[in-house]
Automatic annotation (TrEMBL):
Lineage: Bacteria, Bacillati, Actinomycetota, Actinomycetes, Kitasatosporales
Cross-referenced PANTHER family: AB HYDROLASE-1 DOMAIN-CONTAINING PROTEIN, HYDROLASE, ALPHA/BETA FOLD FAMILY PROTEIN
Annotated protein name in UniProt: Pimeloyl-ACP methyl ester carboxylesterase
GO molecular function, one term: catalytic activity
Cited Pfam families: Abhydrolase_1 (PF00561)
Length: 297
């Protein structure tokens, strides 16, 4: 009865009110939030550079959690999770798998945004049976064009933000057009909707380690992503400066079972600027695969 009551409560709890929980595995205590109905395949959200639990757009989380279980978490050394942040994407992927298995989950869907999309690609190759399908947003493949420049770009836009009294994400995630600026301000306002039990900000050491991991990913020889046979939804804005948008097209072309969505007049945070459209597309993608699995069973 308690489990049924918890499931009902989680199904109606918005992300801004979802409790922060912890679970310990592999010597790490992971902080996470878990919401949505306990039906279907859970979706694990893999976060971007410098992000903690509070950096997920609540409209995206709530929109997907309205139909299925969604779990967000801080990987090792990030936010309220313990340990030291790794300096490679591969190590981050291993930690993410440790967290997923600690929850007792046998199969999940992965939504990886930016750095999280890099982690998702590795998990799909190292632990293919753990993954049912992938949503890769604002991300690119190993060795992708321009990815090695993320560190310099992040530093530049952080300085710009300081001198203009703005959040760096206004520059990093959104275009400088009128629509882009407005979308950025609305996104940043949504991130402040949670007023209680907020996560701990990422440490400078963890942030620098993440930058090193992304830089190394950008310098790697291209991976054979044709080995990823899972259904994949790839999405991005048409003017992504952090992970140039042509990387999304490259991923979609090289993955054997992928579809591509590109949002106009949008940057790295295209899925946040077009959150309504993205949520609809993501849910249709997830439902369509579930329907096929049911027919084939």
């Amino acid at each position: 009865m308690a489990d049924m009551q918890e499931a009902r409560n989680d199904a109606v709890t918005p992300y801004k009110d979802a409790p922060t929980r912890t679970i310990t595995a592999g010597g790490v205590t992971f902080a996470y939030r878990d919401l949505g109905p306990r039906t279907g395949t859970p979706v694990i959200f893999l976060n971007h550079l410098s992000a903690v639990l509070d950096n997920w757009d609540p409209r995206v989380v709530d929109g997907i959690a309205a139909h299925r279980r969604v779990i967000t978490f801080d990987n090792r050394g990030v936010g309220a999770s313990t340990g030291s942040t790794p300096r490679t994407i591969q190590e981050m992927a291993r930690d993410a798998v440790t967290f997923i298995r600690a929850l007792g989950l046998e199969q999940v869907d992965l939504h990886g945004f930016s750095m999280g999309g890099m982690i998702a690609q590795v998990i799909a190759q190292t632990d293919p049976r753990l993954v049912r399908k992938l949503i890769l947003t604002g991300t690119g493949p190993a060795g992708g064009e321009g990815i090695k420049n993320v560190t310099a770009l992040a530093h530049l836009d952080t300085v710009r933000a300081v001198f203009t009294l703005q959040d760096p994400k206004q520059f990093l995630f959104f275009t400088r057009t009128a629509d882009g600026r407005r979308a950025g301000k609305e996104f940043l306002a949504r991130l402040k909707e949670r007023t209680a039990d907020r996560d701990r900000a990422i440490s400078l050491i963890a942030y620098n380690n993440q930058l090193k991991a992304i830089h190394r990913w950008g310098l790697e020889q291209p991976h054979d992503v044709s080995l990823i046979h899972h259904p994949v939804l790839v999405a991005n804005g048409e003017s992504d400066r952090m992970v140039p948008s042509k990387n999304s097209a490259d991923l979609a072309r090289r993955l054997p079972n992928a579809e591509l969505v590109i949002y106009p007049d949008a940057g790295h945070g295209g899925i946040f600027q077009y959150h309504d459209q993205f949520v609809t597309t993501a849910n249709e993608f997830l439902d369509r695969q579930e329907a096929r699995a049911a027919v084939g069973a």
